[in-house]
Amino acid sequence: GIFLAAMFVRFIVRDDIGHGITKILYAISRRQGRIKTHNTYTSLIASSITIGMGGSVGAEAPIVLTGAAIGSSLGSFFKMNHKTLMILIGCGAAGAIAGIFKAPIAGLVFAIEVLMLDFTAASMMPMLVSAVTATVLTYLISGTEASFSFLSEGAFRLENVHWVLLLGVCCGFASLYIIRGMNIIEGWCKKIESPWWRMLLGATVLGALIFVLPPLYGEGYDAIESLINNNPQSIAHNSFFEAYSHRFWVLMLYFLLIIFFKVFASAMTNGAGGVGGVFAPSLFMGAFVGYTVASLLNHFGIADVSAGNFALMGMAGVMSGVMHAPLTGIFLIAELTGGYSFFLPLMIVAVASFLTIILFEKHSIYSMRLAQKGQLLTHHKDKAVLTLMRVENVIETDFDTVDQDMTLGDLVKVISKAHRNVFPVVDKDGIFLGLVYLDDIRNIMFRQELYQRFKVRRLMISPSAILKVSDSMEQVMRTFDDTNAWNLPVTDEENRYVGFVSKSKIFNSYRKVLVHFSDE
């Protein structure tokens, strides 16, 4: 499955289609909401191949990318403005989640909370319509039953609230393990230059893990349903642990191994060339964490709690932590299982998990890479506007460059025709060397006896800072604040001179983007 998916991506798609939600976030913040048209079908095909042949990932993120890409493509085809394009992306994502899980509220909340789309109440209506329409269509095709059959084992008892809080904290640490573990393992895979060796390694590791721990095969929804309905022994079927599954500690060891190696299985699937998301792995891990915590509490006589109910709550907790989206976790699990009577414990677990992981990771598994590059659009208006701005759009190039070997006389000739009072010094290859300020040479520029004595190399000075074309606008503003400069030179990665950026140009552009952003 990994081999076929990787071949499809490498030779047919010829583009990176992994990490679907991250792709949407990048398109929103850096591509004005334009998602490549091929994403309307390629990620769906690749994920189907990956998961259908045992890849330990979920299909939800690729389907969400497909929905968002359809919305973006429609908006681009009809040449709609940026505001409408964002709404269509939100509609596609909300409809995808709602259709997959029969969860219209979760679909709407997901678009706002995970994709961080900043909408007014009026502009949210199309997304709500999209979510409801997708849910109704799913009802017509597959019936109105919840995605998971769940038999509640009694109502939530208030005296167990501290154990629910404990579960939330455990889910927070499990989420931290998922985020960091997947990033590290996928990073290792990227260091393997040969895609063939990468595929071979990933397929071998995944095959070995599934052989020893069969529940790691595919999305794992059968295992989730067994846990929330308190039927743990069925999970050990066809494994080395089946003959001993009636023994408590053997079963707990089995569950702990599954929890630990699920991250390896999912990360190796994606890292080796497969395509899938972390939606299903998060739900899977949450169910196992919840069931294991409840089983241990009951075994030691510390508490009397329902392991099935805790598995349900664990799903909400881990999803909230991994995605940094407590509302999505709460509503999705309630709608996914029909467990509406558990809203209070779901809220407690989701919030506790979120508050735990936020101490260690400021960003979700989707937004972490973009945030590190300053490419993440957030609900923070100032940061959102800066994210939408790009350095190359505010660079001014009408500065006259001078050579370091020019004499003062030659420099005066350049000054006489210039419109600026700053002169960048570059060598013959365009490498930036320094600056000459008109104010610094004003006292000698009219003394003709010095014209041949002084050369530019003696007159130039180093700037207080140098900007790079690749810098984020937030980094640029921080540099201006640190240096108190009004103009700063810009170079490329090879230190070749590109131009200047001024505060006034940034402020003018900032104002235009802010007005446009606020109108939406």
| Order of adjacent strands in the largest pleated sheet | 1-2-3
Poorly predicted runs are: none
Q: State Rg.
A: 28 Å
Annotation, overall tally of beta strands: 6
CATH superfamily of the largest domain: Clc chloride channel
The CATH architecture term of the largest domain is Orthogonal Bundle
Summarize the biggest pleated sheet. Answer: 3 strands, mixed
Order of helices and strands, N to C? HHHHHHHHHHHHHHHHHEHEEHHEHEEH
Assign the CATH class of the largest domain. Mainly Alpha
Summed up, the helix count is 22
Assembly category: single chain
Determine the structural class based on helices, strands and strand pairing. Answer: mainly alpha
* CATH level 3 topology of the largest domain: Clc chloride channel
Alpha-carbon distance between the two ends: 43 Å
Portion of residues within helices: 55-70%
The average pLDDT is: 84
Task: Count structural domains.
Answer: 3
Summarize the structure.
59% of the residues lie in helices and 5% in strands.
Describe the fold and architecture.
The chain has helices at residues 2-13, 20-30, 42-52, 60-77, 82-101, 104-113, 121-142, 161-191, 195-212, 221-228, 248-271, 279-299, 307-323, 326-337, 343-357, 368-372, 381-388, 408-417, 438-441, 456-459, 473-483, 503-519, and strands spanning 402-403, 422-426, 432-437, 467-468, 487-491, 497-502. By secondary structure, it is mostly helical. It folds into three domains: 2-142, no CATH class; 158-377, Clc chloride channel (Orthogonal Bundle); 384-519, CBS-domain, CATH 3.10.580.10. The strands form two sheets. Strands 1-2-3 form a three-stranded mixed sheet. Strands 4-5-6 form a three-stranded mixed sheet. Strand 5 (487-491) and strand 6 form a beta hairpin. Helix 8 packs across helix 13 (307-323), helix 13 (307-323) packs antiparallel against helix 14 (326-337) and helix 13 packs across helix 15. The protein is elongated, with a radius of gyration of 28 Å. The two termini are 43 Å apart. The relative contact order is 0.10. The mean pLDDT is 84.
